[in-house]
Q: What sequence folds into this?
């Protein structure tokens, strides 16, 4: 079994190779979907459209390959409405698994230099540069609001009972294993919390 990261346009362009990749042991692909907005995709130099992301996920599923999507929130133009639109898009996209991340200006990148020079960076604690902590606000949202939106993204995707049940009883073996693992971890954590409270 092997895993890879791929661009959505590459999955589409090399659709004919997917059955061979599956046969060779490919079971899991992480796609950099990033956003549902064309303007954001252009700013990120993604050279793809939201339609490409939908097609790539469908092709992976058609070939029984676990489709994981990576999504980024907290881009300078993000608002509550744009992030909500991204959540709706992710539901339509319907990947097997999703990771949401907050746009992080890592030192040494163009984004960091721009953010620092324009005074956007509000957190210089390097241990928070993990794509989970909001380092800078957007034009419309504070860091705290961006952080809240990240939690909403995860709750919306993984809080769906329909999605959980589909995962637990999926025909895709890897998807089943991942969702059973998450269920088990959730039960263990709840029991640990209960016993600590006693």
A:
């Amino acid at each position: 079994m092997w895993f890879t990261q791929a661009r959505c346009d590459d999955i589409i362009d090399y659709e004919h190779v997917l059955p061979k990749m599956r046969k060779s042991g490919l079971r899991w692909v992480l796609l950099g979907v990033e956003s549902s907005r064309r303007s954001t995709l252009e700013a990120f130099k993604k050279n793809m459209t939201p339609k490409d992301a939908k097609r790539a996920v469908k092709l992976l599923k058609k070939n029984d390959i676990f489709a994981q999507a990576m999504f980024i929130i907290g881009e300078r133009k993000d608002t509550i409405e744009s992030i909500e639109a991204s959540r709706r898009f992710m539901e339509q996209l319907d990947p097997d698994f999703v990771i949401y991340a907050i746009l992080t200006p890592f030192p040494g990148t163009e984004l960091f230099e721009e953010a620092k020079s324009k005074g956007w960076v509000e957190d210089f604690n390097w241990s928070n540069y993990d794509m989970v902590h909001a380092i800078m606000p957007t034009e419309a949202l504070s860091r705290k609001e961006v952080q809240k939106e990240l939690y909403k993204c995860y709750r919306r995707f993984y809080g769906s009972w329909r999605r959980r049940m589909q995962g637990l009883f999926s025909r895709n073996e890897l998807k089943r294993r991942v969702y059973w693992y998450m269920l088990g971890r959730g039960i263990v954590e709840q029991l640990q919390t209960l016993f600590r409270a006693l």
Remarks:
- The chain has one domain: 2-159.
- The mean pLDDT is 92.
- The first helix runs from residue 8 to 13.
